[in-house]
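Quarterly update from the structural biology core.
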Amino acid sequence: MAKIFLLFFSFLTLAANAQTAHDSLTIDSVYPPKAEYKFRYQQIIVPSSMLLIGYLGVKNGWLHQVNREVRSAFRHHWNTESADNYLQYLPLVCDYGLSAIGVKAKHNYGDRTIALATSYLSLAIITNGLKFAVDAPRPSGSATNSFPSGHTATAFMGAEIIRQEYKDTSPLYGIAAYTFAAGIGYARIYNDRHWFTDVLAGAGTGIVSARIGYWLLPYTRKIFKKRKSTALILPFYGNSQGGITCAMLLP
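Predicted structure, tokenized:
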């Protein structure tokens, strides 16, 4: 199991480094300021590959055998009463917390809240749409909404937002956030809630959702400022269900 743990963390940390390296080579050296808001296909190569491999895990016999072997390695370690229901939101909290203690972020609180709201809306649409369309059974057989992992998607969305906001200050913030998000994915397998490929797809979904929030920020910012709207986003958990509450005050 230690080998699986190290392989899992190494792959996802590599994904974080790949995202950071790509931005430093393209945005800073080639593209003008604010180019991070523009869609470029290079930005989705890593997360879309993770999503594709995750989907193949549902359909492909060889990859599903890998899923079963990973599940077997955790057979004596399942614990359905876990903290990952709460901890999936920690990267989102840290996004605001870091700037509250003086770490310089790229955007102000208002723009970050708008980007977060758009990202989470995108994540909800993509994740729930895939869960409904694919209808994959969970490892435990308790439900048929295993693909992709929503907890992992939420954690990686928060990690990508932290990476975007603080990469100019230090890439270590993004790497630390991605490592923590990988831990959430690990916990979902550990607790027999998801297959390995569900978690991989969840990670890709979270990254893409966060990027959508920033791609659309120039437009969503205008909408909010024009209407002088305010928004409040809070995570919640109760009755074995979790999520984020978004309250908007419109004129």
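The radius of gyration is 18 Å.
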